[in-house]
Amino acid sequence: MKRKLDSNDAPTVEVPKKPAKGAESFDQFGLDARLMQAIAKSQFSEPTTVQARVIPLALEGKDILAKSKTGSGKTAAYVLPILQSILRKKAASQQTKAISTLVLVPTRELADQVQKAFTTFSANCAKEITSLNLTQRVSDTVMHAVLQDFPDIVVSTPGRIMQYMNSGRLSLENISQLVIDEADIVLSYGYEDDMTAIAAALPRDVQTFLISATLTPEVDELKTMFCHDAEVVKIDEKEEKGESVTQYVVRCAEDEKFLLIFVLFKLRLVRGKALIFVADVDRSYRLKLYLEQFGIKSCVLNAELPVNSRLHVVQEFNKGLYDILIAADEQEVLGGVVKRRASKTQDTAENAISDEDDEDESRPAKKAKVANNQKDYGVSRGIDFQNVACVINFDLPRTSKSYTHRIGRTARAGKAGMALSFVVPKDLFGKHKPTSISSARKDEQVLEKIIARQEKKGNEVKPYHFDMTQVDAFRYRMNDALRAVTRPAVHEARAREIKQELIKSEKLRKHFEENPDDLRHLRHDGEHGAVVRHQSHLKHVPEYLMPAQGRKGISADDIGFVGLRKSGSDDKRKDRKKRNSARKGRGPAKRGKVDPLKSFSAKKKR
């Protein structure tokens, strides 16, 4: 399963250079020279398919509904024409001092990401164009002062916008451009009432961008609510460049998931950065603590962590500081239906599986509001994870649509990637209670939908067979580690991490604004040594356990192997033998005085 890597440990693939439909370069759009400089600095060689088709329409002032896959460059497709429009109006003295562009996104992580895109592309015209992320955690006084300066662009979640509108600190009467990013999931996050109120407050002549990865009933609803005769830009999967995700599926027992994940990382079968998806928060900490038993560091990303910590974790993962990120995908959107939790009985939860899918888009989707701490959080959608070599579905999602969004975190920007999914066969479900999870009951049914969906796109989901005769040698180590990671230990680690991250989040908000260099020392992948009994012997792999061909890609340092004889021990033995011979008169005597303490012998003379 090894992939060819580049200098940054990211998988690469040779993608043939094909001109995008409508434009071969950004020069043909007639963009401002300052924007062209920013594009060149961002190393954008040519527009992607969605950019080539959306930007000309946007520059003409048309409403746009754009559907394109994750990672295809949709953000730049609306950021560039919006910046061009603002610069053009200001040059013609048509732009009054007011907020002119509103960008709505479902999550705070995506708001931060979009804000950075606006900042990057407007870097050379920062005096003319200002933007504000309304979801950032600063005091109300500071935010009110910034709003008084009337930034040109405001990026926010719908809920945050409504807070400021209801308090009278924000008005939408001068908005001329509206963007709804990830439009297919905005309503599923419980923002339906907010979106209705925002639509009523907007002027009638607003240019609207609806940006989505899929076309769902929610998108149609938003189109009716906000658009006027919108141009639909639907990019087929075959038109997308760089589609290069190699997909594998492993059928295994519940406890064997933990065995195989240990083998994958300890024996370096997966190189580069890995994103692991699990079903819930408890599961993420259990896996983190389990990997710690073997000296494998990882960090966790879930809805319980403070937003500043979540953003920082994503940033540091993208920089390459962490190699393994465990993401709890509790906020999994099931074709417009958010998973219902506490109100359902355990039996219902175990048998629950969504039939909503892209293949079934015509059915009206039910809506359920999300808990407050998860309302503006999402992992499988929106967040831009960079240079991900491998996506591992440790727990299979409940729909093929969620699967598609998960594996879309890799193979971005023309690079190759790998997706590996663990599937529990029905006859093996519930056989190992400590590692069992209710969602695995329907793994085989979900897998059938995944395979059918991928075949429609011309992709293959290949079975991968581990040589279990070699892997079984590590089973006793897996059992030792799992016994140490008890349920109370998981809960304690979870509570401790949240407490620590709350402190770090506060530091991120205050101290690190003035001391950005100190961020280098802030890590999120520390070990929970005080919580779980660590067994040091598990961090080393004895030579006799190594597979016959497993050592080829591994050095002794990589796996913590310690030999019986230290390097250079033969030379030391020879020197010791010479010294002993000299003392006994059987070898060349040393010059100079003899140290009585070193030459003293306790043997009796006969």
Total DSSP helices: 22
> Globular, elongated, flat, extended or rod-shaped: what is the shape?
elongated
CATH architecture of the largest domain: 3-Layer(aba) Sandwich
* Radius of gyration based on Cα positions: 29 Å
pLDDT < 50 runs, ≥5 residues: 13-21, 332-377, 551-569
By CATH reckoning, the class of the largest domain would read Alpha Beta
- What share of residues is helical? 25-40%
Give the tally of β-strands.
Answer: 16
Profile the largest sheet.
Answer: 7 strands, parallel
Q: How are the strands of the largest sheet arranged? A: 3-4-2-5-6-1-7
Structural class: alpha/beta
Strand-residue proportion: 5-15%
Assign the CATH topology of the largest domain: Rossmann fold
Number of domains: 2
Round the mean pLDDT to the nearest integer and report it: 77
Q: Cα distance, first to last residue? A: 70 Å
CATH-defined superfamily of the largest domain: P-loop containing nucleotide triphosphate hydrolases
Explain this structure to me?
The chain is of the alpha/beta class. It folds into 2 domains: 26-239, 3-Layer(aba) Sandwich (Rossmann fold); 245-330 and 388-540, Rossmann fold (3-Layer(aba) Sandwich), CATH 3.40.50.300. The protein has 22 helices and 16 strands. The strands form 3 sheets. The protein has a 7-stranded parallel sheet with strand order 3-4-2-5-6-1-7, with helices on both faces. A 7-stranded parallel sheet has the order 10-11-9-14-15-8-16. Strand 12 (333-334) and strand 13 form a beta hairpin. Helix 3 crosses helix 4 (108-121) and helix 14 (400-407) packs across helix 15 (443-456). The radius of gyration is 29 Å and the shape is elongated. Residues 13-21, 332-377 and 551-569 have low confidence and may be disordered.
